[in-house]
C-alpha cells in the first residue's frame, strides 16, 4: 500500500505525488492538522479555514476514487515523523509520497520524516509539483541562483520553449479499501471562526478554482497588462488563495494562459505575457527561498540593511494595521485585507512601502501582519514582496523610489471607486477630495469622521532616504 501525504496540494487533478502513488498500487491519503505549528508560522485563520473547507471537498473527491482520507492531529511538525510511522505500520505502507515544499522548516520536517521512515525500511518520495522548475535547475552560467528576476525569467522562458510541463489527470478509481475516511473537523483549535463574508469570497473546491481560471482566461487575461494596476477593476485573476493551497496547480494556470494565446508561448498578446511573467515572479521567490535560506529566517537579502535604524512606534504600527493612517488609499487597502483576507497587488506594494519608508517601521512587522491576515499568505511571495517594497531584497525597488500614496491614489483609483467601497465615511466626497480630504478646500475642517494624515509625506520620505543612505557609511 502507498500513502499520499497531502500538504499544500489539496487537489486530485494534476497532483504529481498522488498520481505517482496511485500508479504504484492502492493508495491511502493523509492530512495532518498541526495548529501550534501553523500559529507559530502566523498562518491566518481565514487561510487555515480555507484549508479545512477544501479538505471537505477533497475528501468527497477522493471518495469517488475510493481513496480514504485519514486525518491526524499533532501540534508541532517535530511530532510528524512519529505520526507517519504509526500510520505506515498500521496500514503496512511501503512508500510515502508527497509534493515538495521549499521553506526551511518544511524541508527540515521532510528530512526528519524521510530519515525516520528509512530506519524502518519505508520509502519516502518527494516530487516537483508546486513549481514549474526544480529550485537549483534555473541557474547562472556559474551554477548559482539568479538574483535578478529579468535574467531568471529569460532562462525559464527558454526551458518552457524546450519542454512544457504537462497536466496530469486525476487518478482512476481504485478497488474499494476496507478503511473509513476520517471526518473533517468543524473548526481548528486555536483559530478564530471566520467571517462568513470571507468564506463567501473564497469558496472551496477545485471546480471553483477552475471556474475562476476559465473566467479570467476567457474574459480578462488579454486586458491584464492595462488593467492589473487598478484595484476597482476585476483586472487580476484572484487565484492566489487557490494556488497557495494547491487547489489549482501552476501547470493548470500556465496551460489556461497558453490556450488563451492559441498555444503560442510569449506570443504577441501583452496581457497574457504579463500574466505568465507574474507566475514566474511566484517561481522566482520560491527559488530565492531555497538559494538564500536566510530570507526565511527573518533576515534581509541585502545583509547591510539589517543595520537600518527602524523606528519602534507601536501606535503608528497599529494605525497602519487598522487602516487609520489618514491616507485614504492606504486605509481602504488595509480594510480590504481585514474584510476579505486578500489585497490587490499594487496596494500591497503601496502599503508596504508606506510602512517601511514613510513610517520607517521594520518591514518584518508588516510581513507578519500580512501573513496573519492573508488567505493567500505564502512565505516566499510575502517575504519577496515585503523585501522588494522595503528595498532590502534582491532585485528590489531602489530605496529612493518611494510611492506617494496620494498621487498613486489619483492614478490607480481616479474616481475613488475603490476608496468609496472600503471607506464609507468618505463616500460622499467628490472625486478630487477623496484622495486627500485634509488638503481639500471643499471639505470643512472637523466635519469628517476620518483621521488627519499621520505623517508628512515629504519629510517622512526624506527621513527614509537619509536612513538608507546612512547605511553606506
Ligand atoms: C508586500 C507584498 C506581499 C505579498 N504577499 C503575497 C502572499 O503572501 N501570497 C501571494 O500569493 N502573493 C503575495 N504577493 C504577490 C501578489 O500581490 C499576489 O500574488 C497577487 O496580488 C494575488 O492576486 P491575483 O491572484 O489576482 O494575482 P494575478 O495578478 O492574477 O497573478 C497570478 C498569480 O501569480 C502569482 N503572483 C502574481 N504577482 C506575484 C508577485 N509579485 N510575487 C509572487 N507571486 C505573484 C500569484 O500566485 C498570483 O495568484 C505579495 C506582494 C507584495 C507586494
UniProtKB/TrEMBL annotation:
Q: What EC numbers are recorded for this enzyme?
A: 4.1.99.3
- Manner of cofactor binding, per the entry note: Binds 1 FAD per subunit.
Q: Output the Gene3D superfamilies linked to this UniProt entry.
A: 1.25.40.80, DNA Cyclobutane Dipyrimidine Photolyase, subunit A, domain 3 (1.10.579.10), HUPs (3.40.50.620)
Q: Name one GO molecular function term.
A: deoxyribodipyrimidine photo-lyase activity
Q: Where does FAD bind?
A: 224, 236-240, 275, 278-285, 376-378
Residues carrying the site annotation Electron transfer via tryptophanyl radical: 310, 363, 386
The question of whether Iron-sulfur is a record keyword is answered with no
One short Pfam family name for this protein?
FAD_binding_7
The cofactor named in the record is: (6R)-5,10-methylene-5,6,7,8-tetrahydrofolate; FAD
User: Which InterPro entries does the entry link to?
Assistant: Crypto/Photolyase_FAD-like_sf, Crypto/Photolyase_N_sf, Cryptochr/Photolyase_FAD-bd, Cryptochrome/DNA_photolyase_1, DNA_photolyase_1_CS_C, DNA_photolyase_N, Rossmann-like_a/b/a_fold
**Ranges where the Photolyase/cryptochrome alpha/beta domain occurs:** 1-132
GO annotations under biological process?
A: photoreactive repair; response to light stimulus
List the catalysed reactions: cyclobutadipyrimidine (in DNA) = 2 pyrimidine residues (in DNA)
Keywords in alphabetical order: Chromophore, FAD, Flavoprotein, Lyase
Record carries keyword Amino-acid biosynthesis: no
Q: Quote the function comment for this protein.
A: Involved in repair of UV radiation-induced DNA damage. Catalyzes the light-dependent monomerization (300-600 nm) of cyclobutyl pyrimidine dimers (in cis-syn configuration), which are formed between adjacent bases on the same DNA strand upon exposure to ultraviolet radiation.
Q: Which family does it belong to?
A: Belongs to the DNA photolyase class-1 family. Belongs to the DNA photolyase family.
Q: What is this protein called?
A: Deoxyribodipyrimidine photo-lyase
- Gene giving rise to this polypeptide: phrB
